[in-house]
Amino acid sequence: MQQAIRQTLSLLLKSWREQFNTRPGISIFILSAISLIVGLLLVSLLNIHSNIDPQFLKWALIGGGVGALSTALGAAPGLFVKKLPTITEDTMLGMAAGMMLGASFFSLIIPGIEVATDLTGHAVSGVAIIIFGMIGGVLLMLGLDYYLPHEHQHSGPCGAGHQQVGRVSLFVLAIALHNFPEGMAIGVSYTDGNLSVGIPLTAAIALQNIPEGLAVVLALRRINISAGKAVAIAAATGLVEPIGALVGIILSSGLPVSYPLGLGIAAGAMIFVVSHEVIPETHRNGHQTRATVGLMGGLFAIMLIDTLLG
Q1: In angstroms, rounded to a whole number, what is the distance separating the alpha carbons of residues 300 and 61?
Q2: Structural domain includes residue 16
Q3: Range of 31's domain?
Q4: CA-based angle 273:277:278, to the nearest 5?
């Protein structure tokens, strides 16, 4: 077992070197963004007891747990449903995409600009901080997408070293890539203890996790995974969200500027996932109109949730 793990890691490292040599320019930008994020984490960890309020940490972990639970809830019908019409799946995922976009703007970008503007005393500087954070979030997700082996339902396997990883593992890694920024966004949203930011965002992500959880189970069942195992795998991938929430609140607690930067990073990461993965998946079967209607419905739902809970 240990020898197999070492062999797999060796092959992955070789694949990563090949990826870097193929596109050194973008790889350097990706490494720079990851270095920034790691730096923010280290700054916070050096004084973790004074930087993070235990109550805010508790809220963040509860929020991440709600996200994980909603994924399991969405996956549960997969015990009885093996297949849905593709147009229904695409509409559901379109709605999830709309919810993610709405949450990114109403619960991350707009509050982030307000916080950054108050911090700097200048609106343009505040916007610049959020843009900088969003660029970091996009580069983080681009790096994970580029270097982490995974497989999407329609586009197939991708990422460095995917040839050495089993298909189920590739699916699981793809779902983890999707869930991590959502968990991170939840954690960041509770950093300042502002429940008018954290609760609507948690509700939005929990709601959109339900159709996503079912979509994941159906995708696994299409590759002949049993119903029970597919539901268990989908539910287990939801556990990435509490981990992401922990990373998010630590990331955004080290310095005064860390909070708005963290909001920007989380927003950039979520928008990347929507644009790079979710929307293309909903358009591959020719159901663009229904997927777009679903997206708008999800966006309207988040506007209402943000108004009622914000």
Answers
A1: 27
A2: no
A3: 25-309
A4: 90
- 249-277 pLDDT tens trace: 988 887 888 889 999 999 999 999 888 88
Q: Which position has the token pair 């050096």?
A: 46
Say which DSSP state 109 is in. I
Token couple for 117:
């503007």
Query: Could you tell me the pTM of the whole model?
Result: 0.83
If 0-12 CB within 10 Å is exposed, 13-18 middle and 19+ buried, where does residue 10 land? exposed
Please compute, for residue 86, the number of CA atoms within 13 A of its CA located in the half-sphere on the CB side. 11
Q: Model confidence at 154, in pLDDT bands (50, 70, 90)?
A: low
Residue 156 confidence (pLDDT): 52
Distance (Å, rounded) from C-alpha 207 to C-alpha 67? 9
How many domains does the chain divide into?
A: 1
Other beta carbons within 10 Å of 276 = 16
Least confident interval from 2-6, 110-114, 301-305? 2-6
Evaluate whether residue 19 is within a structural domain. Answer: no
Alpha-carbon span 221 to 224, nearest angstrom: 5
Q: Would you call 254 exposed, middle or buried from its count of C-beta atoms within 10 A (0-12, 13-18, 19+)?
A: buried
DSSP labels for 169-182? HHHHHHHHHHHHHH
From the list 272, 303, 274, the residue with the least C-alpha distance to 142 is 272
Q: Give me the residues paired with residue 158 across strands.
A: 150
Question: Three-state SS for 81?
Answer: coil
Q: Which two tokens stand for residue 118?
A: 């108050």
Please state, in angstroms and rounded to a whole number, the distance separating the CA atoms of residues 221 and 83: 8
Each residue's pLDDT tens digit, 186-207? 999 998 888 888 888 999 899 8
d(CA 268, CA 140): 9
In a domain, 119, yes or no: yes
Residue 3 falls within a domain, yes or no?
no
